[in-house]
Specification:
Layout: H1 37-40, E1 42-47, H2 50-57, H3 63-71, H4 77-93, H5 99-107, H6 113-121, H7 134-141, H8 146-166, H9 174-177, H10 191-202, E2 223-225, H11 232-243, H12 246-249, E3 261-267, H13 279-299, H14 324-334, H15 342-354, H16 368-381, H17 394-406, H18 418-423, H19 430-443, H20 446-464, H21 466-469, H22 473-485, H23 499-515, H24 517-520, H25 525-543, H26 550-562, E4 571-578, E5 585-591, H27 597-610, E6 618-619, E7 625-626, E8 630-636, E9 639-643, H28 650-656, E10 661-666
Parallel strand pairs: 2-3, 4-10
Antiparallel strand pairs: 1-3, 4-5, 6-7, 8-9, 8-10
Helix pairs in contact: 4-22, 6-8, 8-10, 8-13, 11-13, 13-19, 13-25, 15-17, 15-20, 16-17, 22-23
Amino acid sequence: MQFPGARLNRFRLRPALSPAKIRRVKPLSRKKKDRNPSPTEMSVEPWASPQDQAAAEHPYSTSHTASSEDQEQHPDKLCLDSFWSEVETIRQGSGYTDLECSRRDSRQSEEGEQEEQWLVDAGLSTLISEDSEDVDNAVLLSTLTRTQAEAVQRRLDSYTLSLRKRNKPAPRDVRDIFNPSISKTRLPDSHHSEDSAHNSMASLPKSPLSAVPTEHQRGAPKEEFFITDVAYCEQAVIFLKQASLPQNNSQRRKEDCTLPRVICPKCRLGVTRVQDLSHSDMKKVRQLALIDMTALCDLLELEVKRQKNSKRKNTESPLYGVPLATLLENDQKMKPNTSIPLYMQALLSFLEKKGVDSEGILRVPGSQSRIKMLQQNLETNFYSGQVSWDDVSPNDAAALLKKFIRELPAPLLTPEYLNTFSAVRDITELRQKLHMLNLLILLLPEPNRNTLKALLEFLSKVVSRERKNRMNLWAVATIMAPNLFLHKAIPSRLTEGAEKGHAEKAADVMRLLIRYQDLLWTIPNFLMSQVRKLNENSNRRYQFYDRRIKNLLRKIHTDSRDKTDKNTSELCRTVKIQLGDLVSGTLEYQFNINSRASDLLTQFQRQSLRSPDNGKGKMRRNGSVTYPDCALFEVGGNIGEHCLDPDTHLLDLFNSNSGGEWVIKLKPNAGRGL
């Protein structure tokens, strides 16, 4: 599926100005990309979260959950009271007196510093460096869409303008007029940059959010398609243009807060989850996600500023107030494959066994004296294994879980993106909320992302036991929202304005995170395509550095890719088998247009039955060996390493990355179990 506004056009980026030397980077031109049909062809089988799939397959078994959610379109009075009670608990117990100090610190940030840090995080620091090369800039910029490139240009213009203001000389003293030897050199006039920045911002469609009609209204369908083949910012451009039409503005109706079943049409290359890519590829995903998220914020007129985490004294506790990365690093010395802190694993494991059926779990407060004693006991004896959980109250453990999240030195959602997470509440359209949350999840550091996912999985289990614990989705969301969106080190607008409205909006963002977590932890198809293109451009840059033949090589590469054999005749591919540190064999596999990764793995399993000594597997009673934890990976070519979805169509994979190898390996340990 292609959107008309998603085709890439030529653009040029104006350079940022250095304080030592003001120069102009040569304009970069890009050729229009021909559509590559293989990676973007939709499968007839849509992808939905396991919860949605269960609801579709067993509609009557989930009728109670669906009906309760329809009835609870808005949080009731008990939920709202619990929200503000939680806010008050956080303020009293977390020392919110530091908030005004952090506000002052945030105001003192040097002008242009945020734009400079943004360019560094987006992988575009060469645009503002003295020794940048056109080739360096072109590698990443050649993968961007027009709207993404305009977002980069606005940051460059803003950085240039702030740099000129910062280096503008002070007004001359009257004594300097008669002393020409002390005269100072002025930077060239900055009117051009000011006009350029103004024109760039003026090019954005100025459609107020209140005029954008919501799709989730009374009588709206309970299913919605979630397209990931086109950049989210390009989809927003189309949506805002359609929303500005008179016939759309006149059909506004009352907003409905029920959550539909979201279906993502599955690409023929399958679904890619965050744990499926190598660290080098995920770094590029984060850079591209930052650019697309920034472009989306510009289009939706969301003003979000990145905050710095205020300095805090080191804590003496081994569990509370310890940076998440430090805590995880220490835990990995005892358990190398762990992805979230062992202490949080223990709390979640206990609550999943004894707390999910407890009435009012998360909402009912525990005994403060018992909580204090339990915390002291855990801090002293947790790592020695001398803690007994038999007499622990689920409410006390839930209170310690929330306190663990609040007491992190930096917010779990990170200081850089906490305000952006909070700003999602101001977006009207559900699809754009999910777009923004999807990009924000990808931007989180790996420890934060894994810890957040473990927390959301537990909260989803609490909601699924609503009949016993009386905690529906709204109740859980209103309780947990303050613990995630309020942090003493970061100024927050969560509690400003109309209390009921702000509490409801904050809880709605939390509700989306819980309900659509499986969708939010996937990598959109357009980002995967951009990562592949980025790797291709980087490889060509190192192989052919001569600028005079750069355009010719790009044309040759495009032509050769278009001429790739995409017929339906069977092809043969050698697949490596690597079940350990060494390659243990190969497998010849013939595939056609209908062949999938699961078919190849099935053939491998059959071969392993005939060769029980091949590799490390589980021994069956008949002496055969199975490999339940195996997966097919693509390695090299235009990707680093990619664990493939079992539904990946192999012919499309071959056409998308003919230079990569196929390797059968054991899946990485992504679990969080004890």
